[in-house]
Design a protein that fits this description.
By secondary structure, the protein is mainly alpha-helical. The chain has helices spanning 2-41, 51-57, 60-63, 65-80, 85-116, 121-148, 155-179, 190-196, 209-221, 240-245, 262-267, 287-298, 336-346, 374-378, 402-405, 472-478, and strands at residues 312-313, 316-318, 349-352, 361-364, 387-391, 413-415, 437-439, 461-463. It folds into 3 domains: 20-179; 195-308, no CATH class; 333-478, Ribonuclease Inhibitor (Leucine-rich repeat, LRR (right-handed beta-alpha superhelix), Alpha-Beta Horseshoe), CATH 3.80.10. Helix 1 packs antiparallel against helix 6 (121-148) and helix 6 (121-148) runs antiparallel to helix 7.
Length: 480
């Protein structure tokens, strides 16, 4: 009787384990089926959905680092637990917590993509990688007890390794969404890029204005959200054909009509506007980048125009001859306290180009543009030898400012767009032998007033959009 009772108890235990294993298998299969069905039930169609989805989804980047850290910690605890069993008990808890957080992160990430209208191959790969990772973690949780009891010693380590690989893949694709698919290779040396097949094609001739200027702007500022991997609003800007195709709302570029082109309208909005692009706090386009896009669209949005160096587009002259050697400025470190006092008084800023003092300073007036006048600029004469770029766009300065500007002997870029400049004293800039860029868009300069600029051979970029002046090439011909 005693033997029979023991057999009965053992049989009940075995059947209980079998039922528990079956129940666990059914639960994992059901959960996996739901995860796999998710992209089909809520397809990433590139359309924006409910705001509350985006609100919750934006917690995804905040949460995702927690499961990553826990997943990486699990194998370390398992290995160390060979000598310290208490660590293996901790590994069990950490694995369970990693699964719970991974599922939560997946849910938030899907809300973000679905709500914001994200789509594209990289978004899809990131999504499927997260799904595979969660399924792998569920299998790890299920297989670990058998590994601890040594009944199935091989399955759990294999599943854990596969989960780590899925984590690496998913993280890589997530990084590509944030920074763009070419983030790691964008600045790769040309020979190395050729060896590994890196780099991107604009879909236009290499020497065209589009490739040299427009495509470069899109690559740096736009393709992280509108590239092959992530095509928000079904819009891609990583090649000429995709740009001209447009997105879910239709064409974003209307050749010859910059004011009717949605792409240009979005980048010219105020940064506080909800429709401003680039979104998500990414670096906005500079005024010259916007000017290039406007000029390109106005000239017909061609993929082949300006295929030779020195060509011009209406309102802009761009050349690509070798620049004169850049002259380093002297060390201004001793003047930092005085620079700080000047900034506090006037509101304008002197910003270092880099950590290297010899690279000079940038004069920025954007915070006080409407009130910054000639007398304010004159107060920066003491720092003139160190200023290499002056951003004076939309300030209240006049032609009298050229008395001060001619003392900025290391000036390489000068922004005067949107000011009341007439150009009557532009000739004084001829003393600035380093000046390579000059933007006079939206001013009152005339064809005659820009004639003195002809002698400035180092001035490779000159912009005259929305001015009475003729295109630069025509103006220089009239001066002969």
């Amino acid at each position: 009787m005693i033997v029979a009772d023991r057999v009965t108890v053992a049989a009940r235990g075995i059947f209980s384990q079998i039922r528990s294993a079956r129940r666990t298998a059914v639960q994992i299969a059901s959960a996996s089926l739901l995860l796999v069905a998710l992209p089909f039930l809520f397809r990433l169609d590139g359309r924006v959905h409910a705001d509350w989805l985006q609100f919750l989804g934006r917690f995804h980047p905040l949460l995702l680092h927690l499961p990553i850290g826990l997943i990486v910690l699990v194998p370390l605890l398992e290995i160390a637990g060979a000598k310290r069993p208490a660590l293996r008990e901790a590994a069990d808890f950490v694995l369970g917590a990693a699964l719970a957080l991974a599922l939560s992160t997946l849910a938030l990430g899907y809300m973000l993509a679905y709500g914001a209208g994200d789509s594209g191959t990289t978004v899809s790969r990131h999504m499927w990688g997260a799904i595979v990772l969660c399924i792998g973690l569920m299998l790890c949780v299920s297989a670990r007890p058998a590994w601890i009891s040594r009944k199935q010693p091989a399955i759990y380590p294999v599943l854990l390794t596969a989960s780590l690989l899925a984590l690496i893949w998913t993280g890589h694709e997530g990084g590509a969404i944030t920074h763009g698919t070419g983030y790691l290779t964008r600045y790769m040396p040309r020979r190395l890029g050729t060896l590994f097949g890196a780099g991107s094609s604009s879909g236009a001739p290499a020497d065209s204005f589009y490739t040299q200027h427009i495509h470069q702007v899109f690559e740096a500022k736009c393709v992280a959200c509108h590239g092959e991997g992530t095509a928000k609003a079904s819009l891609r800007l990583d090649s000429f054909n995709y740009v001209m195709h447009g997105g879910k709302d239709g064409a974003v570029v209307v050749p010859g009509q910059p004011e009717a082109s949605m792409l240009l309208a979005r980048v010219e909005l105020s940064p506080g506007d909800p429709h401003f692009m680039p979104a998500e706090g990414r670096t906005p386009l500079t005024s010259d980048e916007v000017s290039w896009i406007r000029a390109w669209i106005k000239a017909g949005a061609s993929s082949t125009a300006l295929s030779i160096p020195g060509g011009s587009i209406e309102g802009a002259r761009t050349q690509s001859p070798a620049n004169p050697p850049i002259q380093p400025v002297e060390d201004y470190s001793r003047l930092k306290p005085e620079i700080q006092r000047m900034q506090s008084a006037l509101g304008a800023k002197l910003v270092p180009v880099s950590a290297n003092a010899s690279d000079g300073l940038i004069l920025r007036t954007v915070d006080v543009a409407s009130t910054f006048k000639d007398s304010d600029l004159a107060q920066f004469r003491k720092f003139a030898p160190y200023i290499v770029e002056a951003e004076l766009a939309r300030t209240a300065i006049t032609d009298a400012s050229f008395d001060t500007l001619k003392t900025f002997t290391h000036l390489r870029a000068l922004h005067l767009e949107g000011t009341s400049i007439t150009g009557s004293r532009l000739g004084t800039l001829s003393a600035l032998t380093q000046l390579n860029y000059l933007n006079l868009s939206g001013t009152r300069v005339t064809t005659q007033s820009i004639v003195p600029l002809k002698s400035m051979s180092q001035l490779h970029h000159l912009y005259l959009f929305n001015t009475p002046a003729q295109p630069v090439e025509a103006a220089t011909r009239n001066a002969q």
